[in-house]
Inverse folding.
């Protein structure tokens, strides 16, 4: 990530390039984008820059199952190919990227901390100190902190302070949302990227990225949940008052529907995937018993495919979809943020394109549901404007939101994380200085 221009005059806004990589269970996608300072007032809140995608490459994923790298060689191969394609299209070479993380039993926890200000104005150093105190509590063996985010500050007894810089008080407090994950899956993902001669600038939790891309301002402010249904995993994030307050992931996704169909109809995985895309639905239709679908049985060279009623297929799809949504509903209610979400749920991710899914989600979650596509990024090819690309686009938006984030430790394998003078720190500094 090369930030163009020095750190001289703060008023001259600069442009830069940014590379992101989404390593999923069904596809690997790399995007290279130019960030330009935005001048119009009508931008999405909190975004200081316009994002123009100048290179994109995507590949069928290999060596990844349920978001976890299970074969380094094959994963490395898929990563190389997609980064290569994006580099060629953008006409530049990439050395480090922002990557998302789905696996590793993501867990959200809330912490609070207070420091003594002694009647002085709060400055950057104080904020760093209170964030550090909050984040320290989350360091556990074999777990890594992926995000530690302030949800709100308090000065003395006044809660709900959004930005305490320059304000006066005796005690500065912070409520923090700390998201942790297992260290091993993070290291293996990083390894497969390092083997492609690339370094990981920063890891971002998939639910956070998807939410940034698919939710609109009002949803972020009033509170909403974003459910990203991928091939091997489904993640859920909750935003409230513009902040990411809760994240979770389950290892069930669209591939499980395909697998269920392949087993239930005893056909090959490819045939099941095709049937799911062409005819699959989570909604029983009135003509399902009469509609016949032809299936090629596995290992049968005969020319005569089997004819089965569509209702048989719908039942298989619906059973898995209902189970997944019920699991998400329970997770959401257990999180304690059910009220913050209110009635607003946004479905995104590749598997959200299944026919009848929004209706099934409305029925089971008991909330309003819409399908979310990635917003606020220019230059995406038509094929990449769908919900399957939300996580990748969210990674492009993320650096503008990273200015307050704190990282108590060096993080995975000594990565230069925000706050330790790494590139991302310079970048968020640069985004702040550019105002």
């Amino acid at each position: 990530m090369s930030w163009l221009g020095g750190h001289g005059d703060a008023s001259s806004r600069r442009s830069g390039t940014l590379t992101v990589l989404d390593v999923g269970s069904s596809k690997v996608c790399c995007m290279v984008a130019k960030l330009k300072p935005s001048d119009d007032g009508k931008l999405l809140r909190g975004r200081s820059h316009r994002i123009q995608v100048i290179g994109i490459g995507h590949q069928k994923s290999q060596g990844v199952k349920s978001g976890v790298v299970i074969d380094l060689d094959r994963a490395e191969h898929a990563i190389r190919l997609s980064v290569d394609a994006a580099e060629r299209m953008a006409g530049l070479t990439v050395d480090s990227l922002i990557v998302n993380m789905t696996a590793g039993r993501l867990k959200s926890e809330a912490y609070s901390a207070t420091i003594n200000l002694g009647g002085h104005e709060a400055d950057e150093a104080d904020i760093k100190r209170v964030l550090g105190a909050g984040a320290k509590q989350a360091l556990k063996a074999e777990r890594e902190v992926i995000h530690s985010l302030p949800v709100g500050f308090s000065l003395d007894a006044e809660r709900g302070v959004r930005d305490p810089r320059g304000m006066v008080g005796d005690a500065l407090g912070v409520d923090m949302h700390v998201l942790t994950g297992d260290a091993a899956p993070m290291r293996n993902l990083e390894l497969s990227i390092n083997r492609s001669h690339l370094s990981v600038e920063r890891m971002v939790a998939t639910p956070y990225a998807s939410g940034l891309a698919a939710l609109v301002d009002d949803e972020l402010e009033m509170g909403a949940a974003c459910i990203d249904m991928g091939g091997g995993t489904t993640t859920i994030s909750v935003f409230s008052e513009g902040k990411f307050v809760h994240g979770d992931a389950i290892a069930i996704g669209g591939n499980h529907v395909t697998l269920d169909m392949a087993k239930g109809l005893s056909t090959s995985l490819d045939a099941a995937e095709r049937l799911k895309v062409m005819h699959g639905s989570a909604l029983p239709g009135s003509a399902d018993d009469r509609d016949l679908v032809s299936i090629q049985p596995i290992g049968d060279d005969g020319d005569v495919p089997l004819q089965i009623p569509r209702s048989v297929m719908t039942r298989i799809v619906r059973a898995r979809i209902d189970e997944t949504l019920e699991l998400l509903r329970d997770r959401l209610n257990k999180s304690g943020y059910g009220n913050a979400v209110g009635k607003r749920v946004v479905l995104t991710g590749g598997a959200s394109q299944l026919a009848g899914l929004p209706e099934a989600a409305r029925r089971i979650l008991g909330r309003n549901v819409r399908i979310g596509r990635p917003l606020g990024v220019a230059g995406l090819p038509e094929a990449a404007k769908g919900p399957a690309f939300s996580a990748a686009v969210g990674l492009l938006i993320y650096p503008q939101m990273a200015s307050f984030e704190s990282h108590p430790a060096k993080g995975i394998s000594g990565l230069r994380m925000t706050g330790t003078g790494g590139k991302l720190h310079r970048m968020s500094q640069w985004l702040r200085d550019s105002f």
